[in-house]
Specification:
The protein is of the alpha/beta class. It has nine helices and 16 strands. Bound molecules: adenosine-5'-diphosphate (ADP) and N-acetyl-L-glutamyl 5-phosphate (X2W).
Length: 259
C-alpha cells in the first residue's frame, strides 16, 4: 500500500490538540494518504502515578517499569488516551480504531534491560498485515505503545517514539511525523529546518539534543535506515498539511539531504 503516513502524538500535547490537527488528518485521507497514529502519554502516566503515590524514574529517557508501574502505564495509555483520541477523530468524521500491541498480535517485544528498566520492551515484530487490513477499510489505527511478549503473558512498555519508528518501517511508510510541544529540533532557540542523520547524531553528542527529543530523533534515524524517505518533528499547533511550508525539522537520509 502506498502513501502511508505515521503520525506520533506526544503526550506533551495530546490535551491541547486543536481542531486543525484533526481537520488535517481528514484532509490527508481525502488526498489519498493513509494515516496511522501512534500516541504517547508520559505526563498523564506521571500524574496518575503521583496520585497513587507510586514512585517513577527515567533512565536515559525510558521509564523504569515495575509490575505496579506497568499496570498504570497500560491503564492510562490503552484506556484513557487511546479512547480520548478515537472519540476526537470520530467527532471530526474520521473512522478510527484504538489498538494496543495485543490486538491482532500487533506488536511483540522482548525485555530491553530487565535489571535496570524492568518491563520496558524492545519491539521484535510488528504485524504489518493487520495494519494494512485496517487501512484498506478506511480505518485510522490509533496505536497505544504496549507490546506483548512471545509467551502472550508478559507485556511491555515501549517508548511511543520508538514504537512509531518501528511501525513506520513495518508498513513501509512514506513519512513519519513526530508531533510534540516544540516547533522542531531547536538550536539556540532557532528551528533547525533540515538535518541529516549524521548531523543529528552530532547534535546529541554536543548536548544540543537531549531528554525527550533523543528517542524522537533516534526513531527518525531508525526509520530512515529502514527505507523511509523523511521524518519530521513538528509542533501540535502547526497545520500538518501546509505542504511545502510546513514548519518543523525534516530529517533525511544523507544522499537525499545534499541534493
Ligand atoms: N534540541 C532540542 N530541541 C527541541 N526540544 C528539545 C531539544 N532537546 C531537548 N528537547 C526537549 O524535548 C521535549 C520533547 O520531548 P517530550 O517531552 O518527550 O515530548 P513528547 O511527549 O511530545 O514525546 C521538548 O519539550 C524539549 O524539552
Ligand atoms: C518506556 C517508556 O518510557 N515509555 C513511555 C510510554 C509513553 C510515551 O512514550 O509517552 P510520550 O510520547 O509522551 O513521551 C512512558 O512510560 O512514559
Amino acid at each position: 500500500m502506498e502513501k502511508i503516513i505515521v503520525i506520533k502524538c506526544g503526550g506533551s500535547m495530546i490535551d491541547t490538540l486543536s481542531d486543525d490537527f484533526f481537520i488535517a488528518i481528514k484532509k490527508l485521507q481525502e488526498t489519498g494518504f493513509h494515516p496511522i497514529i501512534v500516541h504517547g502519554g508520559g505526563p498523564a502516566i506521571n500524574e496518575l502515578l503521583e496520585n497513587l503515590q507510586i514512585k517513577t524514574e527515567f533512565i536515559n529517557g525510558l521509564r523504569k517499569t515495575t509490575k505496579e508501574v506497568m499496570e498504570v502505564v497500560e491503564m492510562v495509555l490503552s484506556g484513557t488516551i487511546t479512547n480520548k483520541l478515537v472519540r476526537k477523530l470520530h467527532k471530526h468524521g474520521i473512522s478510527s480504531i484504538g489498538v494496543t500491541g495485543s490486538d491482532g498480535g500487533l506488536m511483540y517485544a522482548k525485555p530491553k534491560d530487565v535489571e535496570n528498566l524492568g518491563l520496558v520492551g524492545e519491539i521484535t515484530r510488528v504485524n504489518q498485515q493487520f495494519l494494512l487490513n485496517l487501512l484498506s477499510i478506511g480505518m485510522v489505527p490509533v496505536i497505544s505503545p504496549i507490546a506483548i511478549g512471545m509467551d502472550f503473558e508478559d507485556y511491555y512498555n515501549i517508548n511511543a517514539d520508538t514504537a512509531a519508528g518501528e511501525v513506520a518501517v513495518a508498513v513501509n511508510a512514506e513519512k513519519v511525523i513526530f508531533v510534540t510541544d516544540v516547533p522542531g529540533v531547536l538550536k539556540d532557540n532557532e528551528i533547525i529546518e533540515k538535518a541529516t542523520a549524521s548531523e543529528i547524531l552530532r547534535f546529541i553528542d554536543d548536548g544540543i539534543i537531549s531528554g525527550g527529543m533523543i528517542p524522537k530523533v533516534m526513531a527518525a534515524i531508525h526509520s530512515l535506515k529502514g527505507g523511509m524517505k523523511e521524518a519530521m518533528i513538528v509542533s501540535g499547533h502547526t497545520p500538518l498539511i501546509a505542504g511545502e511550508n510546513i514548519i518543523g525539522t525534516t530529517i533525511k537520509r544523507e544522499l537525499e539531504a545534499v541534493k
